[in-house]
Design goal:
With 229 residues, this protein is of the alpha+beta class. It folds into two domains: 78 residues, OB fold (Dihydrolipoamide Acetyltransferase, E2P), CATH 2.40.50; 122 residues, de novo design (two linked rop proteins). It has eight helices and seven strands; from the N terminus they run E-E-E-H-E-E-H-H-H-H-E-E-H-H-H. A hairpin with a 2-residue loop joins strand 4 and strand 5. Helix 5 packs across helix 7 and helix 5 runs parallel beside helix 8. It is elongated and about 65 Å long. The two termini are 36 Å apart.
Length: 229
């Protein structure tokens, strides 16, 4: 049975197959993660080769034949790979995002597709790679439905604010008030988590986080994902 449909995708990976063929891994808006085989992809000269570089956005006609996905036609594409590859920090960040996305996103979901598309777009547009990485992680946690609970103490269920924040616990997946924690600290970290929950890519740098804060928050989300997914 053959199914032909229009869709858009982000290229995650490109691999050589033998001496002439190619295989690309994509995450599409409709069907999620798929491998696409391109016969003679190493030697043909067309927009297909440029368009299928990692991090690029493509829109076109796809075809399912006996459970395998093929790229039949490219209508449009945006070359995000070129500006990303011209800056080593952007390049490293893009590969990091690919690795994390591949690890934690298994099923098709349009909201994850949009997150990936926006992440590579804003990374290519000159936004800080450190901020992009952090925002990607925070939004990945949020869209997975496991963002830390920031309003209620996870022990006594009391309301938590800047006045009584104790800490934010990875293990308890949320805040602990100063009474239960035994001391009051972590209010700056708490404020940053509040801001990251809803900030857009365009307004990321308005958070005005210090380098050390960005590193701490990135490490927090990495640990949070590893222990809560």
């Amino acid at each position: 049975m053959e199914t032909v449909f229009k869709d858009e995708a982000i290229v995650l990976r490109k691999s050589l197959v033998g001496s002439v063929d190619l295989s690309i891994t994509v995450y599409t808006k409709q069907v999620g993660k798929e491998n696409i085989y391109i016969s003679k992809g190493q030697i043909i000269k067309s927009t297909v080769i440029t368009a299928t570089e990692p991090f690029n956005w493509i829109k076109g006609v796809f075809r399912y034949v006996k459970g395998k996905l093929y790229l039949q036609e490219i209508d449009r594409y945006r070359n995000l790979s070129l500006p990303i590859s011209q800056d080593i920090k952007k390049f490293e960040t893009a590969f990091y995002i690919n690795r994390v996305f591949n690890k934690y996103v298994i099923f098709p979901d349009e909201k994850f597709y949009i997150l990936l598309k926006k992440t590579f777009y804003y990374l290519s547009e000159g936004y800080s790679p450190e901020y992009i990485k952090l925002n990607f992680l925070s939004k990945l946690v949020y869209l997975s439905g496991i963002y830390p609970e920031l309003d209620t103490c996870q022990i006594c269920k009391a309301k938590v604010s800047l006045r009584n924040i104790g800490t934010v616990s990875v293990e308890r997946t949320g805040v602990i008030c100063s009474k239960c924690f035994g001391k009051r600290n972590g209010y700056g970290f708490y404020s940053s988590l509040k801001g990251l929950k809803s900030v857009s890519f365009q307004n990321l740098e308005k958070l005005k986080l210090k380098k050390g804060d960005i590193e701490s928050l990135t490490s927090f989300f990495e640990e949070y994902l590893s222990k809560n997914t």
